[in-house]
């Protein structure tokens, strides 16, 4: 029997994060990258973004000045520059990623591709409380999946009014206390699905 070529509509590829993307998923990423390319009219940060940036960086010109001082104009500076944005803003605003692309001479699609390939980089503005659940091996074997699904159900992070950003994170090097979660930069261990929700609520309520 003669082998048949694969159906081109079913082709899949592996992203840098190791996830399997369908053609539709790849098209979505490309559309987002193209949107970023055409967003130069919105290059100035919004009021809410401006309120969160450092005193020094309030617009594209001040960011360009800062990038000129800190990052030589070469391709290898892309990841350090994105980490710098994440540190300054708490996430990667579209306008700031575009300025990084201008500074380093890298296409916006490549900047966006790098930004979405690393779990430690965030392209959405975080909510008031950021909860990260370790889903590396030790935590998974100790019940991290149950914690994650319970937090999703109880905190409703996808709702527009939610106060919580919920993310997965690689190993936080607290494996001896697995399963572990991070709340606003502080790690907590030996949790179960119920105690994790209670802890998050306690921290969020101060
Ligand atoms: S595997 Fe979760 S802290 Fe190491």
Task: Please provide a written account of the structure.
It is a single chain. The relative contact order is 0.11. The chain has helices at residues 23-37, 47-52, 60-70, 78-89, 94-104, 108-115, 137-141, 144-155, 193-204; strands at residues 13-14, 20-21, 129-134, 164-169, 181-183, 186-188. α4 runs antiparallel to α5 (94-104). The protein folds into two domains: 25-115, no CATH class; 129-204, 3-Layer(aba) Sandwich (Glutaredoxin), CATH 3.40.30.10. It has 206 residues and is of the alpha+beta class. β1 and β2 (20-21) form a beta hairpin. The model is unreliable at 5-21 and 36-53 (pLDDT under 50). The strands form two sheets. The chain has a four-stranded mixed beta sheet, with helices on one face. It has a two-stranded antiparallel ribbon with strand order 1-2. 45% of the residues lie in helices and 11% in strands. FE2/S2 (inorganic) cluster (FES) binds next to α7.
Key features?
6 strands, four-stranded mixed sheet, 206 residues, Glutaredoxin, binds FE2/S2 (inorganic) cluster, 9 helices, two-stranded antiparallel sheet, alpha+beta, single chain
Helix and strand run: EEHHHHHHEHHEEEH
What structural category characterises the helix and strand content?
Answer: alpha+beta
Strand content: 5-15%
Largest sheet: 4 strands, mixed
Give me the number of helical elements.
9
Question: What strand line-up does the widest sheet have?
Answer: 4-3-5-6
Helix content: 40-55%
- In round numbers, the mean pLDDT is 81
């Amino acid at each position: 029997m003669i082998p048949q070529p694969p159906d081109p509509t079913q082709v899949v590829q592996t992203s840098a994060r190791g996830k399997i993307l369908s053609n539709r998923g790849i098209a979505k990423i490309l559309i987002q990258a193209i949107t970023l390319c055409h967003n130069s009219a919105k290059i100035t940060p919004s009021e809410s973004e401006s309120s969160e940036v450092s005193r020094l960086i309030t617009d594209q010109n001040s960011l360009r000045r800062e990038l000129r001082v800190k990052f030589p104009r070469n391709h290898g500076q892309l990841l350090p520059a994105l980490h710098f944005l994440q540190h300054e803003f708490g996430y990667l605003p579209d306008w700031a990623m575009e300025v990084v692309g201008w500074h380093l001479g890298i296409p916006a699609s490549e900047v966006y591709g790098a930004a979405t390939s690393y779990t430690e980089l965030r392209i959405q503005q975080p909510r008031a409380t950021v909860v990260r659940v370790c889903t590396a091996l030790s935590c998974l074997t100790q019940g991290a999946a149950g914690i994650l699904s319970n937090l999703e159900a109880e905190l409703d992070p996808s709702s527009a009014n939610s106060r919580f950003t919920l993310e997965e994170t690689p190993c936080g090097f607290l494996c001896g206390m697995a399963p572990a979660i991070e709340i606003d930069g502080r790690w907590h261990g030996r949790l179960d699905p119920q105690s994790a929700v209670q802890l998050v609520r306690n921290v969020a309520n101060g």
